[in-house]
Fold this sequence. Notes:
The chain is of the alpha+beta class. The protein is about 65% helix and about 10% strand. α7 runs antiparallel to α8 (about 210-245) and α9 (about 275-280) crosses α11 (about 345-410).
Amino acid sequence: xxxxxxxxxxxxxxxxxxxxxxxxxxxxxxxxxxxxxxxxxxxxxxxxxxxxxxxxxxxxxxxxxxxxxxxxxxxxxxxxxxxxxxxxxxxxxxxxxxxxxxxxxxxxxxxxxxxxxxxxxxxxxxxxxxxxxxxxxxxxxxxxxxxxxxxxxxxxxxxxxxxxxxxxxxxxxxxxxxxxxxxxxxxxxxxxxxxxxxxxxxxxxxxxxxxxxxxxxxxxxxxxxxxxxxxxxxxxxxxxxxxxxxxxxxxxxxxxxxxxxxxxxxxxxxxxxxxxxxxxxxxxxxxxxxxxxxxxxxxxxxxxxxxxxxxxxxxxxxxxxxxxxxxxxxxxxxxxxxxxxxxxxxxxxxxxxxxxxxxxxxxxxxxxxxxxxxxxxxxxxxxxxxxxxxxxxxxxxxxxxxxxxxxxxxxxxxxxxxxxxxxxxxxxxxxxxxxxxxxxxxxxxxxxxxxxxxxxxxxxxxxxxxxxxxxxxx
Length: 474
């Protein structure tokens, strides 16, 4: 084996030292996930964990099993299960490990190059050996590392946003599932009242005290109630399955029990006069856009610094000419790329265009953030007003009407069919309130998400499937 120990000359000691220092950059034990977990805990109030080995996966499974066994499964428990257990979310955490690997790689200098030339003519030899180091990397490594550091920070923010968005979607799915189960229970009561009316109409027609038209009307109400119940049960099953997917559950764990009703409506909606300013200060996407712009600015500076010199290598060399026993001539070798054809103007122009694009994207992100948070807050206030109107006006009014009709029935002023129709209308009114309450809690979840990051589609108040007017009109 050829001995090259004598190749390293004194002038290369500094280069080798820098190379060794650059090679000290190492990966962190958790891939930088602790910062993400802290962000998620402070913003969302839930714990997050990255299962990187079997023992960590077992610990997560044990905690998830304990949460799922709770009866009923509350909204915060469901969110915690989803954040810990969703495998798609776990897969996204690998992006953080990739970003950290790029950061560590950027902090390491490239390996030295060893070159050798050997020629022989009789007993005459020509042997050239050189060990070169990329000196230009010594100058650009700090800039490149700073750029990758910004990208790594952006990756951490993006993953934190993804976790919080998943938590928000789970919260809304839990609200929808509980509301759907509550709606099914009321729809079954509507169907029961319609069934009683249809059966009574059938018997009265057989007795000759009811016309075929009147019986057909009652039978039509029962048929409509049966269809509405089937739709409600389908919606309930779909809502529950969506919640199950978000929580990443399967097998026996899908038998979790939900509460019977949604949380009560707050007496008043929160007043947020400076919500736009708060959103711009807190939103991850705005901060990520700023980091992107700064990173592009640093890239532009790097492009200008390297427009003329792309490769500069320096290192010790030795040459033997003559017989193999002759001594080596020692010296150094410099390798430099000359800008004869490419002066770097295209690279600088591209960097400047990318920087202008980043500025516009950052401005767009800030404008969209303002609009989204205004829309989410407006939906929050409107849905609260609608639900409050149902709670304080519509439902009590329908209850008073039912009480008066019951008195009229006891006084034989109205018949049993009028009483049954009023019962159906009252149940449908309560179902409308459940829908309004669901819309409020979904809008509240959208508002929380809008203060953190982008909301895909803030949900406004939805029209209720219940139509009490048709039942009351009968």
